User: Fold this.
Amino acid sequence: MAVIKIKQNYCKGCLLCVPVCHNKSLVISETINEYGLHPIKFREDAECDGCKKCAIMCPDVAIEIYN
Amino acid sequence: MAVIKIKQNYCKGCLLCVPVCHNKSLVISETINEYGLHPIKFREDAECDGCKKCAIMCPDVAIEIYN
Amino acid sequence: MTEKIILAGFGGQGMMLLGKLLAQAAMADGKYVTYFPSYGTEVRGGTAVYYLIISNEEIFSPLIEEADTLIVMNQPSYQKYKDMLKPDGLLVLNSSMIKLNNLSDVKTYQVPATEIASKLGNVLVSNIVMLGAYLAIKKLFSASLILDQLQAMLKGKKGNLLTINKQALDSGMQVIKTIS
Amino acid sequence: MTEKIILAGFGGQGMMLLGKLLAQAAMADGKYVTYFPSYGTEVRGGTAVYYLIISNEEIFSPLIEEADTLIVMNQPSYQKYKDMLKPDGLLVLNSSMIKLNNLSDVKTYQVPATEIASKLGNVLVSNIVMLGAYLAIKKLFSASLILDQLQAMLKGKKGNLLTINKQALDSGMQVIKTIS
Amino acid sequence: MKQLLTGNEAAAEAAIQAGCRYYYGYPITPQNELINYMSVRMPEVGGTFIQAESEIAAISMVHGSAAAGGRAMTSSSSPGISLKQEGISYLAGSELPCVIVNIQRGGPGLGDISASQADYFQAVKGGGHGDYRTIVLAPSSVQEMADLVYDSFDLADKYRNPVMILGDAQIGQLMEPLEFHRKPKKNLPAKNWSLTGAEGRKRNIVKSFYPVKGQLEEFNAHLQKKYKVIEENEVRYEAINIHEADIILVAYGTSARICKEVVKKSQQYEFRVGMIRPITLWPFPKEIIRKVSERVECVLTVEMSAGQMVEDVKLAVEGRCPVHFYGRTGGGVPTSLEIIKKIVEIVPDNRAANTLLQLAEVK
Amino acid sequence: MKQLLTGNEAAAEAAIQAGCRYYYGYPITPQNELINYMSVRMPEVGGTFIQAESEIAAISMVHGSAAAGGRAMTSSSSPGISLKQEGISYLAGSELPCVIVNIQRGGPGLGDISASQADYFQAVKGGGHGDYRTIVLAPSSVQEMADLVYDSFDLADKYRNPVMILGDAQIGQLMEPLEFHRKPKKNLPAKNWSLTGAEGRKRNIVKSFYPVKGQLEEFNAHLQKKYKVIEENEVRYEAINIHEADIILVAYGTSARICKEVVKKSQQYEFRVGMIRPITLWPFPKEIIRKVSERVECVLTVEMSAGQMVEDVKLAVEGRCPVHFYGRTGGGVPTSLEIIKKIVEIVPDNRAANTLLQLAEVK
Amino acid sequence: MHAIYEKPKTFVDKATHFCPGCGHGIVLRLIAEIVDAWGIRGKTIGLAPVGCAVLAYNYLDIDMCEAAHGRPPAVATGIKRVHPDHVVFAYQGDGDLAAIGTAEIIHAANRGENITFIFVNNAVYGMTSGQMAPTTMLRQKTATTPSGRDPINSGYPIRVCELLAVLEGSSYLERVSLSSPENIRKTKKALEKGFKTQMEKKGFSLIEILSPCPIYWRMDANEAMRYIDEEMSRTFPLGVVKDWEHKN
Amino acid sequence: MHAIYEKPKTFVDKATHFCPGCGHGIVLRLIAEIVDAWGIRGKTIGLAPVGCAVLAYNYLDIDMCEAAHGRPPAVATGIKRVHPDHVVFAYQGDGDLAAIGTAEIIHAANRGENITFIFVNNAVYGMTSGQMAPTTMLRQKTATTPSGRDPINSGYPIRVCELLAVLEGSSYLERVSLSSPENIRKTKKALEKGFKTQMEKKGFSLIEILSPCPIYWRMDANEAMRYIDEEMSRTFPLGVVKDWEHKN
Ligand SMILES: Cc1ncc(C[n+]2csc(CCOP(=O)(O)OP(=O)(O)O)c2C)c(N)n1
Ligand SMILES: Cc1ncc(C[n+]2csc(CCOP(=O)(O)OP(=O)(O)O)c2C)c(N)n1
Ligand code: SF4
Ligand code: SF4
Ligand code: SF4
Ligand code: SF4
Ligand code: SF4
Ligand code: SF4
Ligand SMILES: [Mg+2]
Ligand SMILES: [Mg+2]
Assistant:
């Protein structure tokens, strides 16, 4: 089980990471960041196996993955 | 039998017309033209059947052919 | 009368249109008007700011050194431009996106424009909500003059676009009435 | 002493080299010298003209308004530049290629350079024939000084090139002796 | 009927109304509204719009259409205008009428996209090679942008010469109400030099090459004569308060608007500020500046540059009175307060200082 | 040992001796001897010679090599120099040292290949966009060509600024004896701004883009300060007879040689002609001209143009004495007789006239 | 805690100025990853274009140079001649490389310059507000093709790899895309191959990357990725176009 | 007396400035012959290059325009838009077209400009004293490749027809030569086809003509013609490269 770190003020809410996660673990948040955009967040209780697809997809280097 | 007219002051003596004449009718002359070059001339008593190859080859529009 | 307005927001939040509607109305009303977008840089993203001046007299510099009114859509815009408002100026802000730290002198109106627009079914009309609020406060022009401009601009577009814009304008005006 | 020479001929007749040999000799002799090719135009063909000035004093303009000497290789060059020669100037012409119409004041030397060069086996050295003639008339430098320059320039080239050039220089000098 | 347009759009629409049917451009901020507008409008009027592969291609296409007798235009901003310099020199050397719009941005190099007036030298002295001139017009409002673009085509045709519109990021992107109310001028010379196919006439050749000795000098003499006629006939400027003024401001385009504000503020005071706003930067209104310099205390040139037009002002004044300079560079736009402070600094006489400091307070 | 070389070849050889190892060029008459020479010599010294696909590519390659810390050079003639204007503006804006040689020919447009001085404005005022300056050096003999090219690399490195050598067809193609006798200057600042790979240090960035509001203005202020230092320290000129002269000729490069002849001829006469020959066209020797203008009867500027440097002369003189102009355009080179006649015309005092008419006869 | 994926060290810790969903961020990140992995920060020099990636040097922690619009190939040539053993790459957009810079890229390829070109094809001029690019697809609407690109007026989308393949000087040419994690992995491989081509002195390499510009395609980011797969890759087929390792 | 061959009327009665044996004279004469034969003097507009043929307008008795070096395709585009029904042709050398003018010719082809390009490839910069051209052959000595063109430093000879063939906008591309009366006849045919392509509004056509420059090839004129056959035609194979009439 891996852990996802999302940099709130780097994420621009483009949602590119959302569909690539086979666990559907990423969702849009309600909070508003510096840009006035909704960054994504890790869905509560969701799974992550550290496949890196979300990070690979992210144009803003907003996702880091640890385990 | 065709007649060749060579414009002495247009001919630059490049000799491109010489080898293409199957009758070997064109030769270099001894006279010197405006450029200080030897223009070609029609060899005395030579043949010309008006094949135009010399005129086609001439870069200086120096040859005209009549019959 | 000279009204100097700074409009600022994230690119895509429709501040350009907000200002243009005001400028068109001012023109229709026979006023002098200058409307100037200040592209900060040749670079994408970030804050877009527009300078709008409406006056009864010839306008010289279209730049604004001190604004009568500041309309801001998000936190970074607010941060960046708040000091350009004159001491007793008017501040209209999108409270859905701006957390306020204590403001002293200025008259402040907090309009939850994004929320209202969301509820109307299209976040993109939050700018029109802000416009409605501004109109209700400063009453420079009648709502109908603005609606004329909107109508002209949306000509050829889908009919329901006009409807939702009308609703947005209205909601913005209502908010002010409620607040005050 | 200031000697202003105009050299003119059809491109390819070697006037550039003729002038350069003289210029090098002048330099070796400690003289001031300017050597200026005047490309009339960005266009091929036609006449090439070179301005050579040799002097004991600093030379200002390398252009020549009035020449002490005119060395010409063909009819069009002669036609074009004859009026630039000063009234009592020196004219050296390639009589193989130039028909003279009456010249009054100027000292004229007619050198059948092309014929001589042809006889030597290479028309291309007709310029050196002219150089020999000029040397024999004006005696600015010794033939050996010129030969030094020639030798330096032909270094690495085929040996017989130097020989034929020597012969050409010599023939040019001889012609003058015969004429005068 | 009034319209609210940017200066860039006003320029484009005015060109079309002036009969320009050949527009060639390449995107660059801050003139994008112009090219974008043209891409929509040109097809509507049956004209040609080409987004060229580069600024060089664009000016070359203008060369072609102008040579063929069409009214042609291109536009760009500073770096793109630098690329066009060879082409402009060719157009001037071929005596081809055309209009080139430069919406200046900050330089040098890539610089920035904010407003600037640092291409004055390039436009007025000639950024290209050789002794040529382009007529240079400097609008200071959106309305004037339209009016001058309109006139520029007539001027170009009248003199067979390129005309440059020298704007800046501010005038290009500013929106102001304007009206298109000009009708085409009549009596322009027929373009019988143009390339239309040599049907029933001698061939026409459009060129700038004069390889025969003496010809190029002759041609240059002809150009200089033409330029003299233009200098005698086409100078334009706006003069405000010049008869009573103690000090004269000289400024054009965007910076002139701010100077106007200073002039207006000063009207109620004892110390009088007047101004001359060159509308043609070439030919430069040197006569009026010379005249004025004979009686005022000094002249202050205000530019958004490190000091370029100020040289032409000095050349006009020739030492008759001091010429001062106030400038902002790299996208900075002077404010009226800054200008007033500068005036106080250069006129250290009490009367002026007092008056103006009051003004400064008014802001 | 003396060599007989053309000015073009002298420039090339001097560059190589000054340590230039990166040369990028494109053929154009009358600078072909330079590029041709480089193609032979650069490989011999292990340097880079590229015949670029265009003048624009060539100046951009210079940009790259200069940014990487090399001594780089390009050369061309008028139309090609026009094409380089954007690149030159970028080099100035990136503060990159390099040397650009312009062997001017007649313009505008394709013009002709004969000698001209009509690119003065372009070189000195800035043919590119923005407020920048290039140091401009104007040799008037083949020896001086070599000497100035030599110095130009040091100047470029010292100030991190492009240097232009402004020659013309005559100086480029003229052969004169010359000697290469200069040794490299020492104590130039290390190029620790250059791109060498960021091994063990913070990254270096070479750029001219300043998109954050205010930065570009700051950068321009820095440039202007640098330019002031250059103006204070690097002015060069040759002055002849200026203390006794009644009239001063101002001329550079090729036209200065002819003026020198006039000065020399006049030495034996009562009416004295002096001369100032600017060697740096920018920074312009305005101080000395201003000083001289306080006592002479008038100044006569002689150029191979319709009148360009004369503006800088006037700006230096500021009305202190009359400034006259004599020019030939489009390949015409003034003769000493023409200049003397002009002097007689502008100094209609008998002493001068008599003296000079004598001179005219001497020719 | 052990990192599975972290921001590359060579990527400066700083939010980019790109629009949400823009491909430029991905490409710059990949470059940073390679520089990190290969430890070549000290011998790498990059060229930033004039285009949306103009500020590339703000994000990549390596020596970098600006080039005038279209001129990165020539500027890179100038740099490479001074540092022949460094890794020099130029990053260019489609306007930069295929319009104003056409001559420069063709001749750099023809000279076989030993440089790696990273060509970000987003079918549009992003920076100047979405005008047509040489690679804009037929019928695509842009700011200067308001009714869609029509070949009669505006020509055809230019296939840069195929064009450069004709030149003997080009060694490695591949077209990749950013439309999925899988494709991004291939893109990284292609970039590595480009750098390798250079480090082994095999000459000119260019990697063309189909990259989304959601703003001027007027799509959301995920739609844009689908557009790359469904439309753009038809006009611009993915794959190796030329490879010095597999010449026959 | 009846004429079998006479100077074309459209060829001005005037000696040319070309060197002896130069191919430019032949090409200009062929153009004049076609203009005569087809009677199109009144609707033909030509573009002269900057190169040895700069004075083409002195010899062709038709309306003609100068273009800056490399820009004939763009200038011709500007003319053609004003006179879409005229025959517009541009005459260009290899330096003009394949070096400084690379971008212009590629994009004119890509736009499918309905213009005829006459591309005189003499493998050298004639006008500026014989420097390398993009089409100079490997090992060929020129003023700037004193020891012969080496691809390591100077790249490869560019095959213009093959390059342009990749672009969808090009319609007719053929390479011909002037080396013999037979080849000159074919050249004339190709020129006719180019003009026909334009008159039938079929788009972009370019005829590449291998042409001798005896001066800078340092050969006599007949040797130069042999060189075209024996060397040059190997690097630049003769024949049709693309033809709208024979598309499959
Ligand atoms: C000489 C010049 N011309 C034009 C511009 C304006 N300009 C900046 S970026 C750009 C093109 C951007 O398109 P592209 O290269 O595709 O990059 P993108 O922004 O799409 O990544 C243009 C035309 C400029 N800066 N300089
Ligand atoms: C901008 C510019 N650069 C360079 C030149 C110089 N120039 C004139 S013709 C020419 C090239 C000639 O070669 P080519 O096009 O092959 O024509 P050719 O003379 O061989 O027929 C050059 C570089 C110029 N006139 N303008
Ligand atoms: S690493 Fe893989 S599983 Fe984990 S959140 Fe990202 S995409 Fe989903
Ligand atoms: S891809 Fe990156 S920027 Fe986009 S939503 Fe996901 S984390 Fe945010
Ligand atoms: S026409 Fe034919 S036969 Fe007659 S001279 Fe010419 S080549 Fe010979
Ligand atoms: S081909 Fe023409 S120019 Fe050459 S020798 Fe024959 S007639 Fe004379
Ligand atoms: S405009 Fe397009 S290319 Fe530019 S940053 Fe935005 S999405 Fe990216
Ligand atoms: S130099 Fe070559 S191309 Fe030019 S005219 Fe002479 S032979 Fe012809
Ligand atoms: Mg793009
Ligand atoms: Mg050629």
User: Anything to note?
Assistant: The longest strand of chain F covers residues 98-104. The radius of gyration of chain F is 21 Å. Chain F touches chain H through 18 residues (CB under 8 Å). DSSP finds 14 helices and 15 strands in chain F.
